[in-house]
Amino acid sequence: MSFRIGFTAEESAIDTIETAADVARQTAVPRKSVVLVNFPKRNMTLAYYNDMFDLHCGDMVFVDGKLEGLRGHVVEVNYNFKIKISDYKRVIAVADTSVSGDFFIAGSHFATFDREALPAAKIVTWYKAPVKEEDEFVSGSDDTSFILDDLGEMNVSSSVAQRGHDYYVENKVRYISVDGTHGYAIVEGSEAYEVEFEYRNGEISDLTCSCFCSYNCKHEFAAMLQLRDTLKHIEENYADEFDRTGYFAAVSKGAFFSFVIDSKKSGKFMI
Fold it and tell me: In 54-171, where does DSSP find H-type helix?
């Protein structure tokens, strides 16, 4: 049996969790402020200067300085201030947690077949600070490939496979998508890593990960397990939807509730 999960902000709205406040904030002009940001991983709360966004309590942000790359959430906003700017680090990015669309239960994840509902460009703002202009990236791949249903061909050690399996069981594959033949996943370990691959007729090729391993890693193995599991749920319950669009995106239930539900102060939830 399959279920569709929907969200509404008002009685008249259908299948959405994007409230009127979300829409207004997407077009809001920046408002200068000094904000307190809490970083759970460090158990620290620090003050930052903001001149790029219209920030509110509960917003998930990234900052520059010593805690660059760590996600924090705004716990206080002060508009009345006079500071020496050089004494403060800045807020440099805000996670876009507005979500709108139809979502379907797919095991440990919620899946959508709408490219606009949960694009990778939105999800990555939940986990990673924006790339700096001076950062340079290169990538490459060999000609190896393997069948998704036989991960023994993936050529990973038993220890890597076990650790990858643990990541999969612990739902550390926070997000995974396939658009046409291109696949993308975010796997959260000590930090969030991006896994990319090509998927054609059950075969995986051009598999890469943004971690430092020079071999197939646990993040890739976890992503492949999650891909196989999600595709199984889709084939059994939503094959027509996938065939129609050639696209799916799936987010772990924990990540969905943590970023999309918990950050909202109002709205209606339907199931």
Answer: 120-127, 158-169
Residues in the chain: 271
Question: Which strands, in side-by-side order, build the sheet including 203-209?
Answer: 145-147, 203-209, 192-200, 182-188, 173-179, 247-252, 109-112, 103-106, 4-8, 268-270
Q: Is residue 10 part of a domain?
A: no
Question: Are 116 and 232 members of one domain?
Answer: yes
The order of strands in the sheet holding 91-94 is 44-50, 33-39, 72-78, 60-63, 91-94
Dist CA 178 CA 118 (whole Å): 12
pLDDT tens figures, 164-199: 999 999 999 999 999 999 999 999 998 999 999 999
- Measure the CA dihedral 229/231/233/236, to 10°: -140
Residue 5 lies in a domain: no
